[in-house]
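Milestone 3.1: sequence recovery, worked example.
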């Protein structure tokens, strides 16, 4: 996992390989909770559900999963300034903790985007 910082502030996390076990990727205080799961055959992860609780978040976080293909991401800080370019290929994931991104499709690609809701039309073009 690569934690991407700018001025000592965590902006993104790139997951290239999934470590063994059930591993939290984001801090418990973040609006989007991401956990990787990698276990051997025969493992049983206890069934569970979550009781309804009011959850209030003041920021939007996004998780981008590359199912197929290859992309280059332009990462922007909270001030809309480009600060880093990275690539993701099939099976890799990025969680954008703060800031935003642009996507260049380098190959025919299939992506999954996950973000906290509910959906509000609030997109600001960079």
């Amino acid at each position: 996992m690569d934690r991407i910082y700018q001025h000592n502030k965590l902006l993104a996390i790139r997951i290239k390989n999934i470590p063994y076990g059930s591993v939290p990727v984001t801090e418990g205080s973040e609006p989007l909770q991401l956990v990787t799961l990698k276990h051997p055959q025969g493992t049983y992860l206890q069934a569970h559900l979550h009781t309804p609780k009011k959850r209030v978040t003041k920021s939007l976080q996004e998780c981008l999963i590359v199912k197929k293909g290859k992309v280059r991401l332009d990462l922007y800080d909270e001030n809309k300034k480009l600060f880093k370019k990275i690539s993701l290929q099939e099976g890799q994931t990025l969680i954008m903790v703060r800031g935003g991104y642009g996507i260049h499709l380098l190959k025919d690609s299939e992506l999954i985007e996950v973000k906290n809701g509910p959906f509000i039309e609030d997109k600001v073009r960079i």
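The beta strands are 2-6, 9-15, 21-24, 35-38, 62-68, 70-76, 82-89, 93-96, 100-105, 110-115. The chain is about 0% helix and 45% strand.
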